[in-house]
Specification:
This is Deacylase. It is built from six helices and 18 strands. It is α+β, with helices and mostly antiparallel strands. The chain has a five-stranded mixed barrel. Helix 1 links the parallel strand 4 and strand 5. The N and C termini lie far apart (42 Å).
């Protein structure tokens, strides 16, 4: 049994906002709890959608978007239920960090979680086994955070398992309508895999990054999210746009070939730009060593052809840091 308790009755119709309480006994507060904001907007029968912001605490676009939807969506426009968490890993989001300062937990590497585990593991368990267990869809709003920058607004989804799932997933991604959709292998510790285990379809976004908020990306993601909620029949009324923001192009991502990593500590000089099409073997970056001035820089090369969709935000780099992420366009 989960140790978390929601002040919001998830079975009640109407617009309800409160906190999921995560018991947290510490020196300054022996009987204290961590307040994870949650809202439920429910009316009658229809699909159930869980929308997460702040899965990673240094990704702010989703937090802005989810909190605005909580204020703006009226119950009379809803046919089903919206469950909204603007700061899913609240300790991380409150600190503006990717991981929780309480346990160094990365929520999107913690599923399926543990009911009586560390704070991050307990949050993951509650999201998967209480919220996603009742959901038909998960929308998980990410961005590049502090260390990465994505090229514009993108979507990710786990590669479908069969033709029927592919049809439903492609239709859902087109209805959301961000410029790019990446299909990738599943990872069992991600929220998207948690959704799949609970029988829900999942879309994850990657909206810019660099630890700041771009108005245009929030605007496009808002239009796409409201349009897809209308498309599945959950939402009607004045907020639903008549079309998605873009016509989506589809890409595939290989976890090995499409990433460039540093193997040295130094200063990262990118040799390719976001949105650029590169070819296998093309120089990707130089790592410089100003503390050893006579040491020549190391040149790294791309291991595949594709479009540069993500790059490291910081120049200072250590061995193991991701420098670039590519994707290859496919037909759908």
């Amino acid at each position: 049994m989960s140790t978390l308790f929601s002040e919001v009755d998830l079975d009640a119709d109407g617009h309800h906002v409160g906190y999921v309480r995560l018991p947290h006994s510490v020196h300054r507060s022996a009987y204290g709890w961590i307040p994870i904001p949650i809202a439920s907007i429910r009316r009658g029968e229809g699909p159930v959608v869980v929308v997460l912001g702040g899965n990673h605490g240094d990704e702010f676009e989703g937090q802005v978007l989810v909190s605005s939807l909580i204020r703006e969506i009226e119950p009379q426009w809803v046919h089903g239920q919206l469950i909204l968490l603007p700061m899913a890993n609240f300790p991380a989001a409150a600190a503006g960090l990717r991981t929780s300062p309480l346990d160094e937990g990365n929520l999107n590497r913690a599923f399926p979680g543990e009911a009586r585990g560390t704070p991050t593991a307990a949050i993951a368990h509650y999201i998967e086994h209480t919220l996603l267990a009742r959901a038909d869809y998960l929308i998980d709003l990410h961005s590049g955070g502090s260390s990465l920058v994505y090229d514009g607004a993108n979507m990710l989804a786990i590669e479908p398992r069969d033709a029927d799932e592919e049809r439903r997933l492609v239709e859902l991604l087109r209805a959301f309508g961000l410029p790019r959709a990446f299909l990738h292998p599943g990872n069992p510790v991600h929220a998207s895999s948690a959704a799949r285990r609970q029988g829900a379809l999942s879309i994850l976004t990657e909206l810019g990054g660099g630890a700041h908020v771009q108005h245009g990306l929030v605007r496009d993601a808002r239009q796409g999210l409201l349009h897809v909620l209308g498309h599945i029949g959950l939402l009607d009324g004045p907020l639903v746009p008549d079309r998605p923001p873009y016509e989506t192009r589809f890409f595939t991502v290989s976890l090995a070939r499409h990433y460039v990593y540093a193997y040295d500590r130094g200063i990262f000089e990118p040799l390719a730009a976001l949105g650029e099409h590169v070819v296998e073997g093309q120089p990707a970056a130089r790592i410089h060593f100003p503390d050893t001035p006579l040491k020549a820089p190391v040149t790294l090369h791309f291991g595949a052809s594709g479009v540069v969709v993500c790059k490291r935000a910081h120049a200072l780099t250590e061995r193991g840091d991701c420098l670039f992420h590519l994707a290859e366009e496919i037909s759908r």
